[in-house]
Amino acid sequence: MAVPIPRSILLISSLLLVLSPFGPSFVRPNANADSDDLVANVCKEHVNPGFCIDALKSDPRANTDDIKVLAQVSIELATFNATGTRVKIHSLLLASRDPGLTDDLNKCADLYDIALSYLESAPETLKTGEYNALNLYAVGAADISSKCEDTFKGPPPYQSPLSTDNNNTSLLCEIVKVISNVLGGF
């Protein structure tokens, strides 16, 4: 569910951000920076800049100077990864013979259902300019991947079969968060 933000506040914030002569040029949604500069400027704010650059550059649409296009790419990458993780969880559930592991996997399945609902709501918040809500969705989905990973710590503890998937989901959601911060001027 999107957090309602009064349109007047969004409009004033957006105008101040766009018209501000003091902000860096990459902050403005259609700044005159080439795509490599835009990706580099966004990714320098990421916890893992190399991962961010590689992920964004994996999609040809990232070759843009429009940060909203980059935001859409990042949302789709995070959603695709979370969906793949959810499919993997289902596959692991079908193969599991251990009741404890099955319980942990079921908890992760439920968590990823929530993460996917957040990520599926993200494009609309981008479209409507609700960048705070976009940020909250990204942070929420990233937190959920961490909670899934923590589920395997027990008791009893299990080696997580989802460590890489959870980490990738978290890092991809971090890209969405960074871009929402840029768009919202946070």
Task: Explain what the structure shows.
The protein is mostly helical. The protein has a single domain, classed as Up-down Bundle (Butyryl-CoA Dehydrogenase, subunit A, domain 3), CATH 1.20.140. It is built from seven helices and no strands. It is elongated. The chain starts with 6 loop residues before the first helix and ends with a helix. The N terminus is likely disordered.
Annotate the secondary structure layout:
Blueprint: H1 7-19, H2 35-43, H3 49-57, H4 67-95, H5 99-128, H6 131-151, H7 163-184
Helix pairs in contact: 2-3, 4-5, 4-7, 5-6, 6-7
Keywords: Disulfide bond, Signal
Signal peptide: 1-25
GO molecular function: pectinesterase inhibitor activity
Percent of residues in beta strands: under 5%
Shape: elongated
Q: Mean pLDDT score, rounded? A: 85
How many DSSP helices? Answer: 7
Taking the sheet with the most strands, its summary is: none
The oligomeric state of the chains shown is: single chain
The helix/strand series, from N terminus to C terminus, equals HHHHHHH
What is this entry, summarized?
Residues 34-179 form the Pectinesterase inhibitor domain. This is Pectinesterase inhibitor domain-containing protein. Helices cover 72% and strands 0% of the residues.
List keywords for this structure.
186 residues; mainly alpha; Butyryl-CoA Dehydrogenase, subunit A, domain 3; elongated; disordered N terminus
